[in-house]
Amino acid sequence: MIPKEVFAESIIHFLEPIRAHLEDETVSEVMINGPSQIYVEQRGKLTKTDTQFPSHEALLSALRNIAQFVGRPLDDQHPILEGHLPDGSRVEAVLPPVAPDGPSVAIRRFSKNKLTIQRLVEVGALPEDAAQLLSSLVVCQQNIIVAGGTGTGKTSMLNALSSFIPKGDRIVVIEDARELQLQHEHVVHLEARAPDPRGKGGVSIRDLFKASLRLRPDRIVIGEIRSGEALDLIQAMTSGHGGCLSTVHASYPRDAMSRLETMALMADVELPLIALRSQLGSGIDIIVQVSRLKDGSRKVSHISEVRGTDEKGEFVICHLFEGKYLSEGVYRLLPTGGLPRAEALLTALGQSLPASMMEAAIEAARRSA
């Protein structure tokens, strides 16, 4: 077996044309549209670079080297590659014939410095009172979904939330490709595996999730919900596995619930829609919505509580914090006056709600009186 260090040197050699971008801490993503068109994202803005690969074959050679490193096939029959570089950067590549204009690649870089909630507060992505609420919700084992569009910082937020998990808890992390850097000591990492060229040996997220339930987890963290594993996760949440964390692609809290519903329906389990919605509404407690604003900054736009379903079977969602533009270019995440149903549990566990939430609740009650 080739040592990891040798692979790392080999990959860097093949990626030499974009090495400077991969080593630049201000670059969050490198996008390659064929050998001669390369863009980078810096501070939320896309810029075309003068960088080029010498040829189509040079780019393909780099991708084949990455595929060999992660142990996944890459050819005409397997034209999509999901993997990671030795430094943890995520790679998504699509080859001809499904990318007729040439190989298309996106490399998502992750900061070597762990992003903490305190850092999110410092950069203005999250106010102090909202961070206090999230800390209390994680401690009291609320099931939390981080929702957001592409490039909004879902993984970073999940990493940051993990810092609130009590140190004595055992965490099982399940991912397609390892990205999460949980700020915790007792962590078991499980990584899905694609089938070999003969279609054998594949291990799915669902397979790993079922195995994780017997690994005595205190917390289960799924890097991203993409398919039928949504149903397994929801059923675990409703059967006593509290404190689960995951992410989902969605642009609004209610959209996140609809997405989870759609993915749960992909499972090979016949379940009436009303029963599925009831389980979703019961299992998921909190949705943390992250968004990218017009100026390219990433911020939390909602902290919402899922309160089951109504008599029509529709999800009942209460925004505890909601982002608003107070003036041109001034965006704030503010308490709405809603209080979480877990308030009594928070108090019993020695947690408290932010003063701003209590003040907003009093003001909301005064207005409705």
Descriptive overview:
It is built from twelve helices and 15 strands. It is of the alpha/beta class and about 375 residues long. The chain has two domains: about 100 residues, Beta-Lactamase (2-Layer Sandwich); about 250 residues, Rossmann fold, CATH 3.40.50. The strands form two sheets. It has a nine-stranded mixed β-sheet with strand order 9-8-10-11-7-12-13-14-15, sandwiched between helices. Strands 3-2-1-6-5-4 form a six-stranded antiparallel β-sheet, covered by helices on one side. Helix 1 runs antiparallel to helix 3, helix 8 packs across helix 10 and helix 9 crosses helix 10. The mean pLDDT is about 90.
Number of strands: 15
Rg over CA atoms: 22 Å
CATH fold annotation of the largest domain = Rossmann fold
CATH top-level class of the largest domain: Alpha Beta
Assigned CATH superfamily of the largest domain: P-loop containing nucleotide triphosphate hydrolases
- The residue-averaged pLDDT reads 90
The main β sheet shows up as: 9 strands, mixed
Q: Give the overall shape, derived from the CA principal axes.
A: globular
Could you give the order of the helices and strands? HHEEEHEEEHHEHEEHEHEHHEEEEHH
Structural class: alpha/beta
Strand arrangement, major sheet: 9-8-10-11-7-12-13-14-15
Helix content: 25-40%
Q: Gap between N and C termini, in Å?
A: 72 Å
